[in-house]
Design brief:
184 residues, alpha+beta, four-stranded antiparallel beta sheet, 34% helix
Length: 184
């Protein structure tokens, strides 16, 4: 039975580095046998449908390997199914009505968002910014946007996220990816 996934690429098309044109990314994913491949924005969001019995981790490796073969460099990627993306959106502990996309972000992790990693972070010192943990995700509320957020720097320090692939999406993108995976 076909299942729909989103591939979230990390750190591409930033300041002219690690260029991955979306038409080529779509071709790479189609070359893996995936269908109904669509991309969103230039920051590495692709949605595809597959009949493969492979799980998220295996699909992630397949996408990373195919990108490396095609473009000549490795890109960290997370592949997540549509049900997971919808569950992340539904479980958001922060109010989402009336906010701008830049005020709320989902930091997707390759593994569990173990609370012990974040226990030493003093959230009170960063108010009104705040974060909360979910299933392989950290929700970050930043009323002034991510660019000015000291809390964003703290929660993504290498010492905190060591051993995890982390890629962030603003709330507009979170919602759009849920919509796209439902449409497939």
């Amino acid at each position: 039975m076909a299942k729909t996934y989103a591939a979230l690429l990390r750190g591409i098309n930033v300041s002219g580095h690690r260029k991955v044109p979306m038409p080529e990314l779509r071709s790479v994913l189609e070359g893996l046998g995936h269908t109904n491949v669509r991309t969103y924005l230039q920051s590495g969001n692709a949605v595809f449908t597959t009949d493969s019995a492979a799980g998220e981790d295996e699909l992630t490796t397949q996408v990373e390997d195919a990108i490396e073969r095609h473009f000549g460099f490795r890109v960290d990627c997370l592949v997540r199914d549509g049900a997971y993306l919808a569950a992340v959106a539904d479980a958001c502990p922060f109010p989402t009505a009336g906010i701008e996309g830049k005020q709320l972000h989902a930091f997707y992790f390759s593994g569990p968002a173990d609370p012990e990693r974040f226990a030493a972070i003093d959230q009170e010192a960063h108010r009104p910014q705040a974060f909360a943990l979910g299933d392989r995700v950290l929700y970050l509320y930043v009323p002034e946007g991510l660019g000015r957020s000291k809390l964003a720097e703290v929660v993504t320090r290498p010492s905190v996220v060591k051993g995890l692939v982390v890629t962030a999406r603003n709330w507009n993108t979170v919602v759009k990816l849920v919509e796209m995976t439902r449409e497939a």
